[in-house]
Amino acid sequence: MNTFRSAIQKLTLYPSAIAGLFAIFLLVAVAIYTMITIPYSEAIHLWRGGEEVWYQNPRFAAPAWINYLSTKKYSESFSVNTTDGSMIKTVTPGSDGVTTYDISYEFDYQYDYFPQEMLLYMNSNFKTKQPFVSIELVTPDNRTIRIGNFTFSDNFTYRFSQDEKLLAKLRAPEVIPALFTMPDSEKPLKGKYRLLVTGTTFEPDSDISVEFVSHGQVFGLAGTDHARRDLMLPLLWGTPVALAFGLIASMGTATLTMVISAVGAWYSGWLDELIQRITEVNLVLPFYAILIMIGTFYSRSIWVILGAAILLSIFTNSIKGYRAVFLQVKESMYIEAARAYGANNSRIIFLYLIPRMIPLLIPSLVQSIPAFVFLEASLAVIGLGDPVLPTWGKIIQDANSNGALYKGYYYWVLEPATLLMITGLAFAVLGFALDRVFNPRLRDA
Amino acid sequence: MSVIAQAPLEKATIRKAARFGSFARFMRYVVTRLATLFVTVVIGIYLTIMIANMGGYVDQIIRGEIRDRITNLIALNQAYQQMDPDTRRALIQEKIALEEKRQGLDTPIAIRNFRYLSNALQLNLGRAINMTSDSGSKQVRLIILERLPATLLLMGISQLFLFFSSVFIALSLSRHYGNFWDKLVIALSPSSSVPPWFYGIFLILIFASAFKVLPFGGMVDSPPPSNTFDYSMSLLKHLALPCASLILSSFFLSVYNYRTFFLVYSSEDYVDMAKAKGLPSRDVERTYILRPTLPSIITNFSLLIISLWTGALFTETIFLWPGLGRTLFQAIGLYDIPIIVGSTIIYAYMLAITVFLLDFVYALVDPRVKIGQ
């Protein structure tokens, strides 16, 4: 145990290793936080959800913090409704079951780019007489723009930009820019806007609920993709998936390689010969092609791919390297002593041979993690990602297939790429330092 | 007299016998080595064929496609419009059976796998199922040959540059290790944990999307320029980003590995001895450091040559580079088993031949190694 303590002490001499460890702790914390706050089933539901889940979000919206970096401000998305009180609703009962509703929402508009779209979702319960609403927008310079009057049935959606009547009234090429500018001006008018919805119902038990959604140019901490999904979800959920994939694959590969090479070296004879031959056959097999075939033909589940990747990674050159060391260790005195007191084979292999290799194993294990993390991403990028799980690779693939780089949605690629990069480099840097601590021959060189 | 006369004769026979003995040993070694390598290749290819066939799953897909295509073809053909439904159905069945026979689907899968195997081993790559070469041929050999130059160009430039630059830079770093550049290479070597396509995305983002100086992907402009100079300029422009990402992703680790390797060898006693003798540092480097490291460098170089033939699957796919790697990816997507098997065979054979030849090369460059012992 002392060697480990001294190894950790030596590790603190490498600032890069400290940084790597810090990043790994951070990632693990994010992974745990994600799994607690967004349970697996909910994450899948959200990730696979369509318009009904994500209708409040704009498409292709950059993260909101880019406003801090840019002098021209992008309009932020918001959604308010009468049910949770974020829109003020006053009810005035009248005679004969007629009720008037005054619903208003005031928002501060300080942006240089107009929202993509504004929508009103209206709901009402009635038996025969349809309710009636009129919508108005009060601009900062106190003009009142009449948006329109409707009678509506249940589940009514009003899209500002699609209203031809309004467009004709505004005498402008597009509705939304016209709402947010002074007449005969190009520049957006900044200030407090007020949306007024005046509704009337004609039955005693009727009620109106309104939801006002503005699809801005920017959204949240991470932005959205082509399906209006908040990228925060796959970014968060990609963390446990990437860590699990990388750790399970590298640990599985490392321990199995070690055990198999130890068994081969210990028993020698035909078993050893067989392991050698399997290794040679495996070197002939095209690693990526086989994984892609499994992904295309069998199953795109991340766990099937994980298993296949482990199986293909066991019998590689490292098994030969371990075997060479084991053959040396096998001849050492303490093994002979163990044999002399009658230790059985499995005891010698698992208690005497393998522990000797752990210093050699740990650095290579840590160093192989990035390869597996990126393997998942690589397969996802060429379209063989897990169809259910939200992962970083899937984000890059979505971005790539929607021409994100071509159209300039850089955030879409950069966010998952940065996380992948941090994960990969953190483990690589740590593994590198571990290698120098455990194998000091390299350190002086 | 007899004693004097006999002595050289005896010596000669002994020498001859020894030479014959070593030749026999050499031949025995060559034969067993070739046999094991061949068996390895056979098993490797058979496994690939088995995975590529997926126990008949691919057959179902192909059968379905044949059924669809032929039914459509007959339904759309004016000449068959007047036919009564039963005759037409019979005709469709017949055509489907014919097409299945043409693609060899009427034989059981185990037999078909062996047929694939024996054809494959004879480098008789057969015909692709869905893919065609740009010249319209379905011959797997032609499809692979057509994509080969693109892969060789991309991989050749990047891998050879990578190899020579890292060996030379590593040599100079090992000469004065511990200086700023050496530390920089050590610090940057973890960057190689990131695969080339990933750097590719960043490079596309910077050079193609933001600055718009280099193309997003592909191999030449469309339409291809007619004169040779413009054509090669356009080719170079398209080569820049994929090459850069391939080089970038392994450069620092490669330099670091060679540098450590040279350092280990230059700390040997005989190198100190040579320095103490006052030999010029160039001679020390060449005869005392490079010479013993030659086998490993040759191994690396030959593995590099093999990698030229396989192409870079993900990088080619990201950059839409029409090489072998991307062809393999497309073939898998189209369930085109002959192409998958074809490219595996070439790789397997190349690997086996290289491994076989390496033994002899080792014996040539390292006098301590003797073949067959």
Give your account of this protein's structure.
The complex is a heterodimer of chains A (445) and B (373). Chain A is built from 18 helices and 9 strands. Chain A is an alpha+beta fold. Chain A folds into 2 domains: 2-46 and 230-444, MetI-like fold (Orthogonal Bundle); 72-215, Jelly Rolls, CATH 2.60.120. Chain B is mainly α and 373 residues long. Chain B has 2 domains: 2-121; 140-365, MetI-like fold. The interface between A and B is large, with 47 and 53 residues.
Global structural class of chain A = alpha+beta
The first-level CATH class name of the largest domain in chain B: Mainly Alpha
CATH class of the largest domain in chain A: Mainly Alpha
Q: Could you list the spans of chain B in which at least 5 consecutive residues all have pLDDT below 50?
A: 1-9
Radius of gyration of chain B from CA coordinates:
29 Å
Shape of chain B: flat
Strand order of the largest sheet of chain A: 2-3-8-5-6
Helix content of chain B: over 70%
Helix content of chain A: 55-70%
CATH topology of the largest domain in chain B: MetI-like fold
The amount of beta strand of chain B, in percent, is under 5%
Gyration radius over CA of chain A: 31 Å
The sequence of SSEs of chain B as H and E is HHHHHHHHHHHHH
Strand and helix order of chain A: HHHHHEEEEEEEHHEEHHHHHHHHHHH
Largest interface: A-B, 47 and 53 residues
